[in-house]
Design a protein that fits this description.
single chain, 257 residues, 67% helix
Length: 257
């Protein structure tokens, strides 16, 4: 699935989408599943990403449950699977280092520092790396080559476009990075609170799934009601029998001199 997305983005000049934070988080989650399932630190990080920024990204980017749209299904997979994994690690998997019956700590304890350290350390590495790549190293290249980035996508969005219009065009990347930091911080804090509150996380999970289904239903209705154009041929051409081909197109014969 990831390979298909790489190929798809390469054809659409969307190479820089592949360095968005969701892919950075996804790589770390994949590493956790293969090598670090016993690590308390990595498990805490996986929960923080799944219960925080990735889960709420399903709402921010209006992901939809449409299996026949490969691009939409990839986005759904990237954002939703870590959220389900986080729920499983905390409340269903007895072998998990953060299983609620074996790993109990109170809200506001020293765990707060460890939780935010595990979430913010990789985030800030990505944050400054992404800023350098988009705004400094490859800025002219992305503009001249008309490459798509998440910044340009949000510029074209009606809601975010108003936010960008407040500032000059030279500061769009900075505005985007600030917005991303606020969004990450807010969702990470919600994820931290839900770590100690199963009903809250269950509510968030149900809300994300309902959002996916609703957006998917809307997309299906739009696809079914989309007008399709077809080529029609006039009846007078069809009446000319041997002067038309099987498709009804008129055949023009040159007169012999």
């Amino acid at each position: 699935m990831l390979l298909s997305r790489i190929i798809d983005y390469s054809q659409k000049k969307g190479h820089f989408y592949l360095i968005d934070f969701c892919y950075t988080a996804g790589i770390q989650i994949l590493y956790y599943l293969i090598f670090g399932s016993r690590s308390l630190q990595l498990t805490t990080r996986v929960f923080g990403f799944g219960a925080g920024v990735l889960g709420w990204s399903t709402v921010l980017f209006a992901n939809c449950l449409t299996v026949y749209r490969l691009d939409e299904f990839c986005s759904l997979w990237i954002h939703t699977v870590p959220s389900l994994l986080a729920y499983s690690l905390r409340w269903m998997n007895e072998e998990s280092p953060i299983y609620y019956k074996t790993y109990v700590c109170e809200l506001g304890s020293v765990h707060l520092l460890n939780y935010f350290k595990q979430c913010y350390l990789p985030y800030f590495i990505w944050f400054f790396g992404y800023y350098l790549i988009i705004s400094r190293i490859f800025r002219e290249w992305t503009v001249k080559g008309d490459y798509m980035t998440l910044v340009r996508t949000m510029e074209s969005n009606s809601s975010f476009g108003k936010l960008f219009s407040i500032f000059g065009p030279n500061y769009h990347v900075e505005v985007f990075m600030l917005y991303h930091l606020v969004f990450f911080s807010a969702t990470t804090f919600v994820g931290y609170v839900s770590f100690f509150c199963k009903p809250l996380y269950t509510f968030c999970l149900v809300f994300w799934i309902v959002s996916l289904v609703a957006n998917g239903a809307k997309a299906i209705v739009e696809d079914m009601t989309k007008p399709y154009s077809c080529l029609l041929y006039t009846s007078d051409a069809a009446d000319e029998e041997d002067s038309v081909d099987l498709g009804g197109r008129r055949i023009i014969k040159k007169k012999k001199k």
